[in-house]
Amino acid sequence: MSTSQAALRPVRANLVLATLFLGTFVLGSAELLVVGVLNLIADDLRVSIPAAGALVTAFALGLAVGGPILTALTIKLDKRIVLLGAITLCILGNLVPVLVADFGVFIAARAFTGAAHGLFIAVAFVVGISVAGPERMGEAISVVFSGFAVSAALGVPLGTLVGQALGWRGSFTALVVFAVVALIATLAVVPSMPGTGGGAGNQARFAFAPRVLAVLALNLLVFASLYAALTYIVPFLESVTGISGALISAFLLAYGVATAVGSFAGGRLADRNAARTLIVATIGAALSLLALYVVGAIAFLVALVLLAWGLFAVGMVPALQYRVVSLAGPGGQLASSLPASAANVGIALGSVAGGLAIGRFTASSAVLTGLIIAVVAIPVAWATSNLRPPVADDATTTEPVAEPA
């Protein structure tokens, strides 16, 4: 995928990428913040914890379904305007629970915010790739995605602390303030970038081609494997590893830092060879889960395994985005919204599978479930490595990005 926007000079391009990083950091914090203050929300709004969990589900569904729809509807608009609109919608969506004490309205706002979030992700990737140039495509993807990784490692814990000190509405208010900063930065730094290529219908035939769907299936498996185990990692650490309290937070922080490092490194590896990166990373993620299952009772080794797992599992995400956009060719703008949708479906399926396993067996069974899914992902990664981008046959479409051999 490409656009008519020429790559900017390195210093200006890096400034734009930093601004997009800020946006994804703030939006990533908004997505995950609910998890950290879920009990406070449930107590205040007088709903059960499982009912409050619907706030997470609503956001994921809004992103998975609404994100691609909004991307298709805005595909011909100036990308800078779309980014500003998406952040504005997220600000409004996060203001609703601060101002309205109604749980049903809160759920609707979360779905609305999830859709705007999905739109921002898709357009941020398009803008990042465009300003960095095709030779830095993987690096640009990794910078944009790393905002989410860092939000999980730092933004959510900080937001949780604010929620405990000022109440959950206080944490949402702080989030809105940071979102306004991201809005101002985007307005000041991101250049105008007119929409190019065919409309949504023309792009859809490339974005939903079988070769793209195959990599999206791999994307789904990767996240299903990750969240089958990660969703229930705290019970695993408590009952199998035998740690508790602040030590669990330290282990999770180590994992979070590893994901941030992996997301940055994964972009450079994707630039070299995205298909090979996926093969190596899926094998590494499977071996990490196997090691976690085997040495789960040894705390020191578990900490090392969590580092490796974070590097491999999240380090492949830029390569997944790279492959989807590359294989979509002229449909890359629309396709850029699809990996996030596939990931959220995978998260939902993986957490359900892990929950069923841990409900029937032991805490280790969630890790074993993640391992089984990870093993299935390996041959899928190998099979998709042979797929190639289409040759543009329509003069009205944009040139596809050729992936390095």
From TrEMBL:
Bilayer topology: Multi-pass membrane protein
Taxonomic classification: Bacteria, Bacillati, Actinomycetota, Actinomycetes, Micromonosporales
Keywords from the UniProt entry: Cell membrane, Membrane, Transmembrane, Transmembrane helix
A GO CC term assigned to this protein in UniProt: plasma membrane
Stated name of the protein: MFS transporter
InterPro entries: MFS, MFS_dom, MFS_Efflux_Transporters, MFS_trans_sf
Organism listed in the record: Actinoplanes aureus
Alphabetized Pfam families for the sequence: MFS_1
Major facilitator superfamily (MFS) profile domain: residues covered: 16-388
Transmembrane segments annotated in the record for this chain: 15-41, 47-70, 82-109, 115-133, 140-166, 172-191, 212-234, 246-266, 278-311, 340-359, 366-384
Gene3D superfamilies reported for this sequence: MFS general substrate transporter like domains
GO molecular function, one term: transmembrane transporter activity
Compartments it resides in: Cell membrane
